[in-house]
Write a structure and sequence with these properties.
This protein is an all-alpha fold. The chain contains 19 helices and no strands.
């Protein structure tokens, strides 16, 4: 009887030694499946994040730490839902929306999604140009051109060699970004008591609402919501054929979803740590320092406070952020166009077209840091257009079958959507009232 029980436990995976062996065997498989979320996570550490987080820390210290923590928690939920949609259905979010909309609605939706992608690209090219100016003294316009050219090279890797090598390049750049922005935190005199107090949700005036919206737009980014469903589909769903479910079982899909949870958690914990470190570094070193209302000014203050080595590492992190995020942004724009318009243009051609607005902004001399912050506010306004359809689709049992969100998760997702939309409505009201400005 005892032997029979033991055999039964082994068959069910309950024997301790068997559980350890099975876990060890699963670990390499899970590691191999990681990647799509790390590409999407680049959107959460782009130059727009740098501008919004440094501005918030320099002006208001630790006040808005809670915004980053809440935004990162929301991002984990949202990005997993996007990846889940792509894995289960075998289609990207833009494809599913395009198949459900009439022609006029689909084109209108595409216009707003493209404007979001353009705002994303604006922030990323400007951020990379600022980094090149900090490192080598290059003019911003020339820096923008160089960022565009290098991003074309990165996109060529995806076009010619496929997604896996592209993921490797982007994950390497993400490591550089993390090093660049986490380095200063280890030598900053952070007041951890005040940082903990910053976890209490509150605002202080209309400007903090603008910054909170910018931080939210820079963290929960709409183009990443569209993109992650395509990344997960392209990595995990067999290509070809009209039936994306061919050759797949419910058990295999569950395994993929389990690996995706780890992918999203690891990628966004890293991205969240980078974002929070930016704000803490700014709060500890830039408060009361004049001239920190620009990234260049903040870089100078950080260099003066923490030393030239930290200043160089910071600028290198900013450059890696611009290069990686502009490449991912172009990929997202192509995904949006292909899904909503069923039109595909070469990634490199799209890169050239979307580079033009950023170069114009750099050429006419607009304050680049303020342009970055405003681009993130615009992105925040675009989140509901991606998020609300995502929640509805992942809760649709006809579409998702047994993998449709259950009641508790649907409620959580709708609470997230209400919070985001509420902040956006407040932002619009304050803007109309004339209470916001650079």
């Amino acid at each position: 009887m005892a032997l029979g029980q033991q055999e039964g436990q082994q068959e069910q995976g309950q024997h301790p030694a068997a559980s350890i062996t099975a876990a060890a065997a699963r670990a390499p498989r899970i590691l191999f499946l990681l990647g799509p979320a790390f590409v999407a996570a680049i959107a959460y550490v782009d130059p727009g994040n740098v501008a919004a987080n440094l501005t918030a820390g320099a002006r208001y210290g630790y006040l808005l730490v809670w915004v980053l923590v809440a935004a990162n928690a929301m991002a984990m939920i949202i990005q997993y839902q996007s990846a889940k949609l792509g894995i289960v259905t075998g289609h990207s979010l833009p494809e599913l929306l395009g198949g459900r909309m009439r022609t006029a609605s689909r084109r209108s939706f595409w216009v707003q999604a493209e404007l979001v992608a353009a705002a994303t690209d604006l922030a990323e090219v400007i951020g990379g140009a600022i980094a090149l100016q900090l490192l080598f003294g290059l003019p911003l316009l020339l820096g923008g051109v160089i960022v565009g050219v290098i991003s074309m090279i990165i996109l060529a890797v995806q076009s010619r060699r496929g997604q896996r090598p592209f993921e490797t390049v982007i994950m390497t750049l993400l490591g550089v970004i993390a090093l660049g922005f986490l380095a200063g935190l280890f030598v900053s005199p952070v007041n951890w008591g005040d940082a903990a107090a910053g976890l209490v949700p509150r605002f202080e005036g209309t400007d903090t609402v603008l910054l909170a919206a910018g931080m939210l737009g820079a963290t929960v980014m709409p183009h990443a919501i569209y993109l992650h469903s395509a990344l997960a589909r392209d990595r995990h769903v067999p290509a070809g054929g009209d039936n994306p479910h061919a050759g797949r079982t419910a058990a295999s899909i569950r395994r993929l979803l389990h690996a995706t949870k780890w992918d999203v958690a690891a990628a966004l914990v890293l991205a969240g740590a980078v974002n929070i470190s930016m704000l803490l570094t700014a709060a500890a070193n830039l408060g009361g320092v004049t001239g920190t209302d620009t990234i260049a000014g903040a870089h100078a203050a950080i260099t003066a406070a923490l030393g030239p080595v930290i200043g160089v590492i910071f600028a290198v992190g900013l450059l890696a952020s611009g290069l990686a995020s502009t490449s991912v942004g172009s990929y997202a724009g192509a995904t949006i166009m292909a899904g909503l318009l069923t039109v595909r243009i070469p990634l490199l051609l799209r890169r050239v077209i979307t580079l033009i607005p950023a170069l114009i902004i750099l050429g006419i001399g607009v304050n680049p840091t303020w342009a970055l912050v405003l681009s993130q506010v615009f992105l925040s306004l675009g989140i509901p257009f991606a998020l609300i359809p995502l929640i509805r689709l992942t809760g649709d049992r006809m579409l998702m079958g047994p993998f449709a969100n259950r009641t508790v998760m649907r409620i959580v997702c709708w609470v997230v959507a209400v919070l985001i939309v509420g902040l956006n409505v407040a932002l619009i009201g304050l803007t109309i009232a004339g209470g916001l400005g650079p």
